[in-house]
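Exercise 7. Given the encoded structure of a 482-residue chain, write a plausible sequence.
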């Protein structure tokens, strides 16, 4: 059982996992709460040598992991899910402490993580091949031919701060479940969350010994993982610039990238405005806008623009901003001061270009408030780049056709949505939207963990979601028996 750490004292200590062995180092890095600046956890400062050691452990155990019974791996995941559910409050509090996610939403992340692991365990039953009729062509002949999926060997996983528990699960649960070994580099902003989660895997009675290692660090550790010849797959969630570096450094190996986004929605004149307003306010400001599919651009039909703008400004102003430890807090602080200062700069730039702040735009007790910008135009930086902050921009458009053209005019293509009661428009949008995911009558921030998740253009390569991650972490072997 994990102790539920007090939110004002007690510094939690994360440790390295070299396989199943816990170790620490003399040099530790402090993690301070984004909310009040108190030290909440520490983690060892790892280097290239630590990373290489973890990789060699993973390589040594890879064949054993591949030969492990599927039943054992399913029981392993089920056991981790069960114990995580039992420890929900401990994990939720640590999320609130390390990344200042409001505790109510932290609990939801834990619950989603449990579901992700359980769905992965179920999907393992479908990880199979099929027979192939090799006599289908005149040049062929009758044989027993089939293919099957096999684990790739070693998987390197690099995860971000915004969902430091569930996004780890989306990588290591299918990777380990498929029979691979894993080296995880979690975000430096939440080392204790990753340590606690990894410990559930390592301590399970069904664990494959030494199959999971965890090392902490930043560029040096990440670069060592990516450039090594040991991993067969690099699975990364993070920024486009880092994704670009990984692509260039990785060499001949599989690379799965879930990168940035600039999520957009169109509000048609036929839409249920009351529904659209409530959902758009949630989608824009959930997790302080620090979500790859956070709603950043709202294109509103000019006939309902003023009404929608007034309604969403009103809705935004009633959202509770404050301590992540209070049950009714909707939004806490951004991850760091740099992010807050960047948000301020972008708003000032947009104002200088003619945009108006109709809600927020200032700090509330040191926390950057949820902000709605009106009269935004295409050339403004605030709408062209990924903000990753609680800012949403409203753009008036004369028609659906103009809206979808503007939505697609972006280097990103993760998820888009539309609010409309026009069936033909819905059908057109499904075809027209240039992105990895389309949502009808809800926000692009909507994600079910069982779905395929990923984008087009600069938003990434590959797909997450248990079924699709299992494909990323396995390779096809073709067999012919003559």
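Solution.
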């Amino acid at each position: 059982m994990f102790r539920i750490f007090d939110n004002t004292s007690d510094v939690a200590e994360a440790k390295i996992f070299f396989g199943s062995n816990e170790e620490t180092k003399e040099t530790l890095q402090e993690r301070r709460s984004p909310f009040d600046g108190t030290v909440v956890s520490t983690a060892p400062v790892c280097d290239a040598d630590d990373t290489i050691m973890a990789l060699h452990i993973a390589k040594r155990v890879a064949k054993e992991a591949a030969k492990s019974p599927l039943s054992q791996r399913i029981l392993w995941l089920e056991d981790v899910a069960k114990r995580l559910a039992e420890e929900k409050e401990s994990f939720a509090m640590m999320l609130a402490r390390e990344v200042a996610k409001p505790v109510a939403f932290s609990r939801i992340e834990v619950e989603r993580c449990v579901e992700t692991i359980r769905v992965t365990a179920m999907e393992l039953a479908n990880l199979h091949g099929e027979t192939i009729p090799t006599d289908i062509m005149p040049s062929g002949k009758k044989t027993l031919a089939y293919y099957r999926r096999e684990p790739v060997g070693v998987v390197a996983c690099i995860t971000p701060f915004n969902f430091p528990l569930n996004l780890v699960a989306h990588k290591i649960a299918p990777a380990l479940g498929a029979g691979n070994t894993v080296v995880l580099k979690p975000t430096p902003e939440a080392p204790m969350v990753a340590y606690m989660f990894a410990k559930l895997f390592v301590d399970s009675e069904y664990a494959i010994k030494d199959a999971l290692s965890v090392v902490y660090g930043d560029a040096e550790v990440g670069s060592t993982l990516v450039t090594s010849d040991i991993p067969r797959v690099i699975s990364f969630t993070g920024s486009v610039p880092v994704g670009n570096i990984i692509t260039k450094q990785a060499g001949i190996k599989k690379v799965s990238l879930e990168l940035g986004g600039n999520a957009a929605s169109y509000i048609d004149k036929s839409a249920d405005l009351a529904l659209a307003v409530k959902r758009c306010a949630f989608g824009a400001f959930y997790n302080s806008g620090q979500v790859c599919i956070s709603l950043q651009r709202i294109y509103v039909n000019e006939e309902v623009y003023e009404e929608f703008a007034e309604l969403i400004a009103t809705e935004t102003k009633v959202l509770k901003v404050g301590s992540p430890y209070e049950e009714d807090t909707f939004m806490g602080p951004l991850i760091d001061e740099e992010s807050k200062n960047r948000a301020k700069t972008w708003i000032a730039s947009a104002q200088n270009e003619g945009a108006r702040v109709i809600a927020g735009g200032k700090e509330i007790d040191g926390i950057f408030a949820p902000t709605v910008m009106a009269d935004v135009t295409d050339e403004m930086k605030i709408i062209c780049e990924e903000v990753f902050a609680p800012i949403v921009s409203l753009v008036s458009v004369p028609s659906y056709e103009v809206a979808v053209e503007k939505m697609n005019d972006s280097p990103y293509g993760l998820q888009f949505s539309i609010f409309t009661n026009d069936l033909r428009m819905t059908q057109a949008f499904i075809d027209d939207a240039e992105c990895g995911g389309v949502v009808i009558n809800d926000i692009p921030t909507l994600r079910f963990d069982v779905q395929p998740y990923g984008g087009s253009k600069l938003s990434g390569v590959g797909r997450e979601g248990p079924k699709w991650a299992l494909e990323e972490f396995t390779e096809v072997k073709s067999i012919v028996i003559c």
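Remark. The CA atoms of residues 132 and 138 lie 15 Å apart. Students should compare their own answers with the one above.
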